[in-house]
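DM from R.C. (forwarded with permission)

"hey, sorry to bug you on a friday — could you get me a structure for this? deadline for the figure draft is monday and I only need the backbone to look sensible"
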Amino acid sequence: MTASQLRDFLVTALVNQNGGSPRRWRIALGPVQLRDPITEADCDLSLARRSPEYGQGDSGKCGDPELYTCTISALVGSQHVQVFAAMIASGHVEVRSRLRRRYGPLLEDEAIVRAGFDWSEPLACAMVSDAMAHVLEMAAEEQSSPIAAGLDFQIEQRFAA
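My reply, with the result:
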């Protein structure tokens, strides 16, 4: 069995047991590496655990407000939907709750949520203007600033599939 076959097997098992989309489980699972069974007899595979910023959420604890960004790229009916959102929130759970209210469970399930702002993220680079990127960078640095207070920004685009 190759590493990609093992990853597909694990993703299928996770979807069957826990629900959710295969894409979300692939992101959460991360890369799978097979190891040489001769040199590493006690462990023949390696999973790189991903942190909550890769879309799995946090433990539900409410912390200090900080900037979260999320991207969604999904096929809905006959349209391809792309969303970039940034908001000040107290955790991934709050962010996902807001996304579910705005876009419904299907698109919320496809969302990748990250703490902070990274303009090199492909959808952010394509959809966010220079001026707004500057505002988001300032909000990420100082969450208690007047610029960050109540920040809730979304850009959505839809294309015919």
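R.C.: lifesaver. Residues 54-160 form one domain.
me: no worries. DSSP finds five helices and six strands in the chain.
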